[in-house]
Every structure is written in structure tokens, then in C-alpha cells.
Amino acid sequence: MHVYLPIAEMSISVEAILTLGLCVGFLSGFFGVGGGFLTTPFLMFLGVPPAIAVGTQTSQLVASSVTGVLGHWKNKNVDLKIAGVMLGGGIFGSFIGVFIFKMLQALGQIDVAIRLLYVVLLGTIGTLMLIETTSSFWSKKKKDAQDGQGAEDKPSLVERMKAKMRTWPYKMRFPVSKLHVSVFVPVGIGFIGGVLASILGIGGGFLLVPAMIYFLGMPATLVAGTCLFQIIFTTGFASIMHATANHTVDVVLAALLITGGVIGAQVGVRASKYVSGAKARIFLAVLILGVSLVLAGQLLIAPKELYSLEVRL
Amino acid sequence: MMQLRYVLTVLIVCCVLSPSMALAQLGSGRLLLALADENVDITTNFSGREVVVFGVNETGGDLAVTLTGPRAYTIIRKKGQALGIWANVKAVGFSNVPLYYDYALSRNENSLANADILRRDGLGVNAMKFEARARLNDSEARPFHEALIRHKQQKAYFSYAAKSIDYTGGKLFKVVFKLPADVPTGEYTVKAMAYKGGQRIAEEKAYLQIHQVGFSAQLYRYAQEHAFLYGLGVVFFAVFFGYGAHALLSRR
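ok -> C-alpha cells follow
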């Protein structure tokens, strides 16, 4: 069955979009990730223009983040003060992001820019995850062996950056997370999340969560809920910005993606009970790496069709 | 419903035809054109449609019928390697490129008229020549021009070959164009032209409106005219849906 998308002005297969929504929903239920990194490339693959794919995807993220945050909210695992400060950076970031998006579009480089950013981000995250999950059990043994020698190497890059961040001004207290840090740290993390949301159509959870743990030093129990809470607002803001500035949010496409996502999430949550966490993480890492490799291929291998067409109305 | 429309159109065309029989005998043949339906309504379940053109050709000449969509500035970009990555490195813009083009001929276009006349009348994909915005010589612009036509043909926005014209009864003719599911919206022009001895001897136009209607059209208009409220509405809808999903998930 086909449905006509009123904003994209194109007819698209309902089954294809629902299936995509299902898969992404399954991932978000299973791993607790947004799955936006899959939606945008696949929508582009189905012939949806990148601008519509990214714009619409932001509104789908609002729905899945609301679903995700409510559980954390009930368990009081949301630090509202940090979320609020991050949001300040997030709103500014999505504003800048929509502007950069529009500029790249005018230059005709939006496709390349989106792919390149995806390759860099997904490639890095996927590799790190794979290394971490596969080495976690034998690195324990190694550590035991090293303990006797007691030799500490030079502090890692993260450690050095953290040390530098402690010297930043405008310190603020966050009682729920028991933190005393410079406001620039949460604002900066939020800003990056906002830029990613509006340029790539992703919540950026896979980048924000580690940043909040390593750089901000937030307690792990609070990170997921706080991050999701913040993502609702940045993606919501990005969605409104895309609708206003670019007219690229298609409500029919969003409804289909959200419907598929809701069903997929239910299946994913149940399926996650039967698979061990480590195996699931390896699978997710391989999936992320796979997507980045396909996109890298599109950038590095000489395309069959060198020319592309754009109509300016 | 469609069948009834065809019958009615044929009847109307015949009524016009009968008095004109006398005129035709006087020498000056007429060319008439009618559309089975002057509106193509795009609804949410639109998946392409046929456009049926009826007409009467009393000129005795050969016939060509074109269907042309609204025109727009169209950019063709060429990829090249920059720092090892395939990125767009060159762009050429063309003015007044129709969003959609299809045509039908009663005989081979080359035996209809010479290349200059075919180009002037916009007959056939091969005769198309769009004006590049940048100052380029012919050999520089040609690959971009070819790519433009190739892309349009691959999307089924330009036809590969001429459709045929059916003469259903003597001077009465019928042409069927098939619009794809993602046909661009706007005002389309249907043009019938008669040729004799390599010259155009008659011309007739009709207009076709292709627009979204109903729910789909209202959404489109609202998104254009009240963009902010539309965006806000989509976000509220998403929050509502997300909340509903959580309620469903946590109940079990």
C-alpha cells in the first residue's frame, strides 16, 4: 500500500516505513538507544530527500524520548537542574545546527556532510564499543597481573581534559547529582547534542551518555533519564525550527515512523530479557559499524552516476 | 464515473465537429482539444493516474501533442574527488526546465519538421535545449545537459520515447499520458500542434491542474502558511503518542 506524503510531495510504501519504524523501535526498546542513526540513512535510501528525512526524524525522536523518559521519571532518575542547563546549550546548538543545515543545502553539500558526519561519529562509537565489550573480560585478568607492578602510565586524554575542565569558571552546584562543576561543561555537552539533532536527525544519546559520565562525572543511574529528558526538548525545538525555516517536517511520515516505533519498542523490551547484555552490545556495535561502513563506501568508492539533480522552486 | 466522462467528452467533441464539417470542406481545417478531466486530484492514496486527451484534427496534417509541467530553475551537480572523498565539485543551473514532460506523435518526429522547428515547438526530448545560467561553451555544458535529461527520464518525469496517437474514428483522436505517483504539482499545459510540409499549420492548448486535495492539501497549506503552529502541532502530537506508548508499555 502506498500513501502520499503531503510535505515531501511523494508517494511512499507504507509497509517500508512501518518496517523501518519497527526496526528502530525494536532497537530503542532492546538497547535503550534512540535509533535515529538508522532512520535517516534508510529514509534517504528509500528516496526521501535528506532534508525531509532529517526534519521529520526529529519529531519521531520527541515521541521515543517521551516514552523512554517516563520510566526514569517515575524512579526519580532525572536531574532537572543539569537537564535545564544542558538544554540552554541544546537550544542554542539546534538553532546553529538548523542554520548550518540550510547553508550546506544552499552549497549543495548536505548529502556529503551528513554522510561524512555519520561515518566519523558511528565509526568512532562503533569501534570503541566493540573494543570495550570484547576486551572487558580479558582486560580484568590483565589488570590483576599489573597490580603487582603498580606502574601507572601517563594520564589518558579524557583525564587530562577533565583536569582542564575543573579549572573553568562559573562553577555551579547540582545537588541531585552531587556535582560542583563549571556550567560550561553541561552547556557544551548540550550544545553538541543540539547541533547533532538538527543536522543529523539523531538524539545523540550514544554520544551524550558517555560524555555525561566521563566529563561531567554524573552518577550512572541519573544519566539515561536526564539525557532523554534533555533530548525531548532539543529535538522538539529542532523539529519546530525545521518546520518553520525549511518546511521539511512531514507529519504523515512522522506518524508512520512513530506507529512502527511504538510497536517495535514493545517487542524490543521483551526480547531484551532473553539475551545477555554483553552479546547485545557486541551486536549493536557491529550494527553501528556496518552502517558507517556502508556510508563510508558511498563516500570513497567512485559512484556510477556522477551527476545529481536539484529543483529550486 | 471515468467511463461516463469519456463518453461525455466524445459527445461534446462530436457536437463541435458536426458543424465544422462544413467549414473543413471550405478549406481551413480546425484543431480541437479537450481533456477528459481538467483536474488531477492528489489525495492521500494517490498512486499515479492517466490523463486522457481527446481532440479533432481536421487539418489533414500530422499531429503532435505535448504535456508540459510547470517550469523551475534546476541545478545539476557533478561529483569529483576532493581529499579522497566523492563530493559535489561543480554545479550548473538551467533556467525554465519543465518539472514534467511527455509527448505523443502521429509519425516520427524527424519526418514531421526539421530540428529547428522541433526545438522551437518543444517537440521531443531530443530537441530540448535548456539555457545554462553560467557562461559555458557547448562542450562544457553538454554533459550537464545530458545528465539533466537522464535524471528526469529515470524519475519518469521525462519520457524516453513518444506516445502514440490513436485515431478512434476518422478525425477524432485520443492520447493517453500516464502520470507517476510522485508527479510534481502545479498547472500543466496540453498542446496539440498540426504539421504539414514541415511547417506548423495549427495549434491548440488546454490546461490541466494537478493539485493535492482534501486532508493532504489542507496539511500542506497549513504547513506552508502557519509553519510555526504546524511544527508545534507535530511536536505535541509526538509527545502525546510517546506518552501513549509508555502507558501501553507499562500496563503489561
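Confidence is low (pLDDT under 50) at residues 147-152 of chain A.
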